[in-house]
Design brief:
Number of helices of chain B: 5
Number of strands of chain B: 10
Largest sheet of chain A: 9 strands, mixed, barrel
Strand content of chain A: 15-25%
Largest sheet of chain B: 10 strands, antiparallel
Radius of gyration of chain B: 21 Å
Number of domains of chain A: 1
Radius of gyration of chain A: 23 Å
Number of domains of chain B: 2
Oligomer: heterodimer
Largest interface: A-B, 48 and 52 residues
Helix content of chain B: 10-25%
Strand order of the largest sheet of chain A: 1-2-3-4-5-6-7-8-9
Order of helices and strands of chain B: HEHHEHEEEEEEEEH
Number of strands of chain A: 9
Distance between the termini of chain B: 57 Å
Shape of chain A: globular
Structural class of chain B: alpha+beta
Strand content of chain B: 15-25%
Helix content of chain A: 10-25%
Shape of chain B: globular
Structural class of chain A: alpha+beta
């Protein structure tokens, strides 16, 4: 075969590959993304400050934009539309639980625990409009999640899976690695946290299995499987990407929201209540 | 943590592990193990519940004494006295079955058997007393008092302390034991140390990468902390403290420099130096040991979520006014 013909054939193969990659049809295409960071023990390095960038805290399901609840705040505090983060967009509520969800949603300003600056629970803490920091050492050390909202935090027990001594707002987290995915089993919740401002809720039988899978150095795919036989007829799942705050100076700000909820909660008990 | 032993094995096998001092504890300088990225490894659960009951300053009845005057025999006597005093007040904490104060049962409390390490906390100046307030600080205190004139202890939630309101205990107070919840855990990652405090619930993220401090326009209840290593000692400098904190009358210009010095496998010698020239005539320091204790794991303290106390204090004040009128 002449050199000329070889060159033509090789060139043709390269051209075909380029076409396939461009069309996203070659399975190996994702390998072209930069490799994920790793710790000294070979585990993915999830350290960093992360945030979702979606409208799930308003409503985890598909929703259109609508007028906000405070007329005086107009466009500044109205509800942006969202494509939803629930797989299949259906939350399999038991028939009697639907009524409770609807009542919650109708009255969310007085009932939503977020308004009172209560610890947000899991998975809501992940997709609230505040960043959180993953603090990961190497095993056998545990992994810490520190959230900006309400100074919430939780420990993911990595090497000894432990039973919670009691029910808590942020749940009890036991973690393990499944390949490059951090899998966190969270249970022992109180029944007082919600999933969003639309009134989606759960009971104290809530069981969440989270999966944190690094896709690139700056993106984690997050999944949460929700199980609660008191409220839902079957497990269901939400998923979304989490993005790294890439600026070198990124730092969690303190958001001690208690002081912003006090007038709402205790103002009427003052000697001279504000009008 | 239970896995400390496993961690030691792992580190011993790592090429980055540093040799540990094999001499007797307390007599030779302890060398802390290293994380895989080379920082001293202080990770674990610590408590200072044994420092409950310790007076902040040298109490008047010990006037003229120095900390060095208290050997093991003298400390044993002090501990016994303090434990007895705590026991005498036990029923007034949680109340009785008939008259429950709502402050929880006595078995929640950690100060009945506290084994104090020191006679008091202030180590510098040597007389164990916080230096005198400056004239400016006395004026501020007088102005605060004047602003409160005519107000009752609970006219509004703002009349209660930042701690009563479950907002924060600030820096350095978050690490001062206060009858229960004296647990702290230290987590490290490359470039960070995080200290969690059970009481109120705080997760204090301390960058070690030499980054600039936050703008002075930003003030936070826990301040803004920057840390670095001096040998095995973690040094943490905290500034940008919220105007509401007023630690012992200090301004938001307060700078707190803490030193977490590992002195053995199970013990950190913690010190904090306070500097605020507009408040005190000179800087001063306190000291406390933190003991590593895997049994003292942090529980979630949903303080605000369960704050019946604040609501009841306000309601009781209104009821009292109604009764008098």
């Amino acid at each position: 075969m002449s050199q000329w013909l070889k060159g033509l054939l090789v060139g043709g193969v390269v051209a075909a590959l380029v076409t396939l990659v461009a069309a996203g049809e070659w399975q190996g295409a994702s390998r072209s993304s930069p490799p994920i960071a790793r710790m000294a023990d070979g585990k993915p390095n999830l350290n960093g400050i992360w945030a979702a960038n979606n409208a799930a805290n308003w409503d985890i399901q598909t929703h259109k934009a609508r007028q906000g609840p405070v007329i005086a705040l107009g466009a500044a505090f109205s509800v942006p539309g969202g494509m939803g983060v629930v797989e299949g967009n259906e939350i399999p509520y038991k028939p009697e639980a639907v009524a409770q969800r609807d009542a919650n949603g109708k009255d969310w300003m007085t009932k939503d625990p977020e308004v009172k600056c209560y610890l947000p629970g899991v998975p809501r803490a992940t997709y609230m409009p505040y960043p959180f920091q993953i603090v990961q050492s190497t095993e056998p050390n545990d992994i810490l999640l520190s959230y900006e909202f309400a100074s919430a935090s939780r420990i993911i027990h990595m090497s000894t899976n432990q039973e919670s001594p009691t029910d808590t707002w942020m749940g009890w987290s036991n973690g393990r690695w499944d390949g490059d995915t951090l899998v966190v089993d969270v249970k022992n919740f109180v029944d007082q946290t919600w999933f969003d401002r639309a009134g989606n809720y759960h009971s104290d039988a809530l069981h969440v299995v989270e999966r944190y899978t690094p896709l690139t150095p700056d993106v984690i795919q997050y999944e949460a499987t929700i199980e609660d036989p008191n409220v839902f007829t079957r497990p269901w799942k939400m998923s979304m990407p989490l993005y790294r705050r890439v600026e070198k100076s990124a730092q969690l700000m303190e958001y001690k929201c208690v002081e912003f909820a006090e007038e709402l909660m205790y103002g009427h008990l003052s000697k001279q209540p504000k009008q | 943590m239970v896995l400390a032993a496993a961690g030691t094995l792992l580190l011993a096998a790592s090429p980055m592990a540093q040799p540990r001092a094999s001499a007797q504890r307390g007599t030779a300088k302890w060398t802390a193990p290293r994380t895989p990225w080379g920082d001293p490894d202080l990770q674990g659960i610590y408590t200072n519940k044994d420092e409950n009951n310790t007076p902040f300053e040298r109490p008047p009845e010990l006037a003229g004494k120095r900390i060095a005057d208290f050997g093991e025999k003298e400390m044993a006597e002090l501990r016994k006295e303090r434990q007895l005093a705590a026991a005498r007040q036990a029923s007034s904490i949680g109340g009785t079955a008939e008259n429950d104060t709502g402050a929880g049962p006595p078995h929640w409390y950690e100060h009945f058997d506290a084994e104090n390490a020191q006679p008091w906390l202030v180590i510098d100046p040597e007389d164990g007393r916080v230096p005198p307030l400056t004239a400016a600080a006395r004026e501020r205190a007088a102005a605060r008092q004047a602003a409160r004139r005519g107000r009752g202890p609970a006219d509004s939630y703002t009349d209660r302390s930042i701690y009563d309101r479950c907002i924060s205990r600030g820096v350095p107070d978050s690490i001062r034991p206060i009858i229960y919840g004296a647990s702290y855990d230290i987590t490290q990652s490359p470039g960070y140390v995080v200290i969690r405090y059970e009481m109120v619930h705080e997760a204090r993220v301390i960058p070690l990468d030499g980054r600039r401090k936050l703008s002075p326009a930003i003030r936070q209840y826990m301040g803004d902390s920057r840390g670095w290593w001096e040998g095995d000692t973690l040094v943490v400098e905290t500034t940008n403290i919220h105007d509401n904190m007023q630690f012992r009358g200090a301004t938001s210009g307060l700078k707190v420099t803490e030193r977490f010095a590992p002195v053995g496998p199970d013990r950190i010698d913690w010190q904090a130096r306070m500097e605020d020239p507009t408040t005190w005539e000179r800087p001063w320091s306190i000291r406390m040991p933190l003991k590593r204790d895997d049994t003292q794991a942090i529980f979630e303290f949903a303080c605000h979520e369960g704050n019946r106390g604040l609501e009841n204090i306000l309601k009781a004040a209104r009821a009292e006014e109604a009764r008098k009128n």
